[in-house]
Design goal:
Layout (H helix, E strand, L loop, with lengths): L1 E7 L6 E8 L2 E2 L6 E2 L3 H7 L27 E6 L14 H10 L3 H6 E10 L9 E7 L22 E9 L5 E11 L10
Antiparallel strand pairs: 1-2, 3-4, 5-7, 6-9, 7-8, 8-9
Length: 193
């Protein structure tokens, strides 16, 4: 199941950001992904509308990182009570925060997040301790990918990173990710003084 979002400026109606996600169903007993039963599909179908997809799916493979391929590693990341949903799982927004923890501070100071792809691998609960691994993606060629991931839509000075969140003790994967960063727009507020 796919869900798309548009966030617009309430005054100008201009699009501020777009997002898309693919949703799956999990069997509560086996904790594994399962096919959505027809009865459930029928029940939720009225809430979905047929629309044109406004973001092409990023089909590039997310490669696993290891210690020797990750120059940036942040350890001892733990969920707080406020990070958990009603099922005692870490909320998906927290994963993005943990990814940011392992990025070089210069990337965060000088750039803004342009695009992110997250691929969840397993659940993360309240007692887990994680590591965040990040590596620059040198020489990535995006040409030939569907829009908006084609080279013509990505500035030449965009930075690409691959990420991995894993359990610290047994190194089980929690999430793989890819992020793209572009230089921040010049802030002219200092010119006013």
């Amino acid at each position: 199941m796919r869900r798309d979002w548009l966030v617009r400026d309430s005054k100008t109606n201009s699009i501020l950001t777009r997002a898309t996600s693919t949703w799956v169903m999990m069997n509560r007993k086996t904790r594994k992904l399962s096919k959505i039963p027809d009865a459930v599909k029928g029940e939720i179908q009225p809430y979905f509308t047929e629309r044109n997809i406004f973001m092409a799916e990023d089909t590039r493979k997310l490669h696993k990182l290891e210690d020797d391929t990750s120059p940036y590693i942040c350890s001892d990341l733990t969920p707080r009570w406020s990070d958990l949903d009603v099922n005692q799982h870490v909320n998906n927004v927290k994963y993005i925060g943990w990814i940011l923890e392992s990025l070089p501070i210069s990337v965060l100071e000088d750039n803004e997040l342009y695009n992110i792809t997250l691929e969840y691998r397993r659940e993360c609960g309240p007692t887990h301790v994680l590591q965040s691994l990040t590596s620059p993606q040198a020489g990535e060629v995006i040409a030939g990918s569907p829009a908006p991931f084609s080279q013509r839509n990505v500035p030449s000075d965009t930075l690409h990173f691959v990420h991995l969140l894993r359990l610290q003790d047994d190194r089980s994967e929690i999430l793989r990710a890819r992020s793209e960063w572009r230089p921040k727009a010049k802030n002219n507020i200092h010119d006013l003084a």
